[in-house]
Here is the input.
Amino acid sequence: MSEQSDLLIVGGGLNGPALALAAARAGLSSTVIDALPRAELEGARFDGRAYALALASVRLLRAISVWDAVADNSQPMLDIKVSDGRAGEGPSPFFLHFDHAEIEEGPMGHMVEDRYLRRALLEAVEAAPQVTVINEAQVVAQQCGPEGASVTLASGEVLHGRLVVGCDGKRSGTAARAGIRRHGWGYGQTALVCAIAHEKPHEGVAHQFFMPPGPLAILPLPGNRSSIVWSERDATAQAINALPDGDYLAALRPRFGDFLGEITLEGARFTYPLGLSICERFSDWRLARGWGCGAWHAPDRRTGAERRPARRRRPGAGAAGGARPWRGHRRAGRAAPLPGVAPLRHRHAGAGDGHDQQAVLERQSTAACHA
Ligand SMILES: Cc1cc2nc3c(=O)[nH]c(=O)nc-3n(C[C@H](O)[C@H](O)[C@H](O)COP(=O)(O)OP(=O)(O)OC[C@H]3O[C@@H](n4cnc5c(N)ncnc54)[C@H](O)[C@@H]3O)c2cc1C
Here is the structure.
């Protein structure tokens, strides 16, 4: 049986090309197969996704010689500020602050829009002699056994290799065909995702503001722009998403605050349902599962029927409702009450019971992966 290449990688999104480039450095050849046409894969338009690349991810991209192609379009994330509160009341006086000055390696991470990362990876695999890229070819079957591995394309063509790797996304057909079960559940939350332009510079600071229905992430992009990942309960998110742009921004403002001046929408808005999805195992005979993050922010299990006016302020809060323990702390503006905005039994990290502190910390650690 003649081998097409060492690795047969199903999926040419982010993980497939990154793996092929890393394998090439180890002297292994790969064939990367994707069902989508090249132009669609590259997706030159912003689809709302922007990644917070941690230092380790940047190191990986450097190691596979892709970082230089994305660096110009990346935004160093100097500080991460995590607070909680409720819409229109401003953040609690307790917060977490991760300062890049406290680590030697440099920024806490880099923000990169999906489109730039994707394009850089695609161009790199196309230039790599050890990698064969096949687009517009759907893998419909795989055979993995002691003598080798192969995949069958929808056209009937069979490609042979030594290992099949499923980098085919969250609902991996490769894993399903191997009988690898997925576990998970929906969080009942939806992320409203968009990019915004703002008057004042963000100074490389990423914010996570935890509210009862879910967190709002404000993630710095190059220029006076930020990526917004705004989690709400499903019904509220649907209601907000159905609003025209002006009303959508009016709903965002009380959560976002006025610390970056006037905000405007940049491009389209998107929604992504949030949930957990994890495979029960990641390998089988001559088969491996390459996977991106499948979990998002932990669900907010604190619910309550009580509703309080969103403009209630804590004693001592300033005119805009926010304590300002550090320069440039985000301040919330005045809230227009929104349907479905659940109340918070207000406890602060460090001031509440152990359960609430744990909830804050769990969200913090998942946010570090997904923010
Ligand atoms: C708003 C948003 C923000 C995010 N932020 C982050 C973040 O900050 N950090 C982070 O780590 N992740 C983040 N994610 C998640 C991240 O986008 C995914 O983890 C990542 O795209 C997964 O990459 P992948 O290559 O594994 O899969 P995908 O990018 O989904 O690619 C899978 C590819 O497989 C192909 N394919 C599927 N089936 C077949 C088949 N049978 N035959 C051939 N081809 C097939 C598809 O066409 C597709 O191109 C975010 C996601 C969203 C929506």
Summary: The chain is about 25% helix and 35% strand.
